[in-house]
Amino acid sequence: xxxxxxxxxxxxxxxxxxxxxxxxxxxxxxxxxxxxxxxxxxxxxxxxxxxxxxxxxxxxxxxxxxxxxxxxxxxxxxxxxxxxxxxxxxxxxxxxxxxxxxxxx
Length: 105
What we know:
- By secondary structure, the protein is mostly helical.
- It contains 6 helices and no strands.
- The protein is globular and about 35 Å long.
């Protein structure tokens, strides 16, 4: 699942969000210079930043996430992160409920 994030993909994600490099940096909890280095190919995102970029890229294709981008809170990093992770936690809860019911039966 963890693929390399090319400079052009980072820039494309940022532009699709409609963010400046400063806004994108704030959203990802990195500095402006980090985003600038990613987009110039002088550094590459890794760890949690790589995963967040992948989640954003995956979700940009969905209509529901595009609706989220119209929300004025989208520049709040916690709001965007919550909206990205919310479906993943929903799946986890559903699996736990099924697992609990299986033990009860």
